[in-house]
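Subject: two folds for Thursday's group meeting

Dear M.,

Sorry for the delay on this. The cluster queue was jammed most of the week, so I only got both jobs back this morning. I'm pasting them in the order they finished. Each block is the input sequence followed by the predicted structure tokens. Could you check whether the formatting survives your parser before we put anything on slides? The first protein is the one we discussed after the seminar.
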Amino acid sequence: MELPSLSARSPLLDISTLKPEFIKPQWATCPGYLDTVLSIFQRHNHPFILVSTLAMRWSGGNNSPQKEIDVLVRSSHLQALVDDIVGSGEWKVSRNYVDIKDWLLYDSMVNETPIRDVWLKACFLDPAFEYLRFWPEELYHLTVDCNKVEVPDVSIRNYVVLEEEYYRDPCQRFGPPLLRRYEECNIPLLPPIQQRAKIMRRDIPIFIPTIEDHINALLDQTREQRKSERRNGGDPEGQIRNYIRYLYLDWIPTRNWLLSTKIRERNLELMTQKLDKYQRKPIVQLDPITKKAYHIMPWERPIRPEFLHLAEQIIDSGPSYASCYPKFPNPDRSKAIVNFGKSTQDI
């Protein structure tokens, strides 16, 4: 099932204005560096679905992009897709890049399972991403027929959450950046034209899995890795932690909602363990009266008028928030945790 495309509703994600005449000869990666790959996927009637780090940046996870684009592929289509992409002359079969460039990362990114994945290396100059990594469904524990959201490009300048139901605080004191907040501030999200994945093939959609399907796939991967004691070359546990961190899944109301509505029964115990184990760092703030620093959790912030928090949605949680806060009197720090776990209706 595909969810409604948000790219069609936001001017920040509009790709219809890209015109071939804007392409300059010195841009080595134009037309779009994935135009050929997308055409091949379309020819094989196979959707192009991002997973892992790049997908999470569209889902509220502030992950740092690496050198690869992770793509979910049906095992039955894997070899045919690889043959045609290599045959285009733009990509060649490669080993995992850390196998050669960084032995410190090798152990964590090598696929030790019997299920084959494929790495392709760009043959053109100055690629936005050097590698494509194709994940078979069985290795990623996610099917190509999963619930999906369409996105306008592979990469994004900053992270954003497109599924607004994961912004759980009704008082808007904390949460992942929403698309409408970027719109209100007119902050660009898509990369410059010379760094776009698709220009000539804007008719071919790019998808990400829904957050619900992605988290459950990562939990399935974690259980499988623990059972088999074999890594799949990804970082499912680290990505689950990032989802918890940036979607504030450890806030009790969100936690209860997530476990009751989004996590599959087979993963409930493991996700509960992950949430119990996660320890969020409190935010350091300066009391405007005493000039003393104190710690506070995001959900302990006072409820304020909307205009005071609009800009904050663009900034990652951390000390940088402090300068945006109004000068409220400092409550008794000995009672700083009194509201932890309560819904906003209880506060």
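Second protein, same layout:
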Amino acid sequence: MEILKCILLSIWICTVLISNIMMESCSKRGPQNRTPTNFTVYKRTLTIIADGVRVSLKKAPWPDTWENFWNDAGSSTVKFGRKFIKWADEEYGFNATALTDEQLTNGDEVDLGEFIYTPYMPDITYRVISETTKTKMTYYRNTQVRDAAFVLIAKKSFNSSGNRREIIQEGATLFMGVYIIDTSKECGFSKKPEVITFTCSMDQRAENGFGPFVCDMFSRKCGVGEQIGLSVVTSPNYFKVASVIFFPPGASITEPDKP
């Protein structure tokens, strides 16, 4: 019994010491800059980057990672996939109703005639580096961003017959996906990940690998937003992204249908 008490006491002491060390590491992040700010244009902005090598477009072990991601996002492959199909049809006139629940779940690439359906879940380091609100500026050190999307790629140019009346160029891609922002490794931040939904279209990349993009965003925390950025892909598999998310968007604050 005495030995057991000694063991439990030792465990308690170690727990207290580790807790104090973690709290101390949080408190020793450096002096805080308390200079008043006055960011009045946007409620919130997030700066996100990806830098390094993109190992693949489908993170292993596939399709387990695909299914698990959508569960973590509070949805499922079939539920979110069907919303994507409805969105693509209503906004652009893309009819992808031929996709089966099994194909959506397995993350299969499917040739649908005029366009190709493919899942997108890149294996790359993607992270938030800063955030602003109307009164605060925050730098992030360890916050990773997981992202995945359902994608349609146009095989030829055509006129959109949906709500967005525009010419869709050959090679253009339509995305509907989610960012999962995990702040659990930051000191003093929420342990619950933030989920942000995005929809966007992107023309075929230029010969130098540059691809600008503009996305519509929705966050339960901040409402409607807009993401503006640039991605660069160079041989053999180097991948860079720099983007800023604005809440609310610059052009409109009308809330879209929540995907």
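Two things I noticed about the second structure. The chain has one domain: 39-247. Residues 39-247 form one domain.

Cheers,
T.
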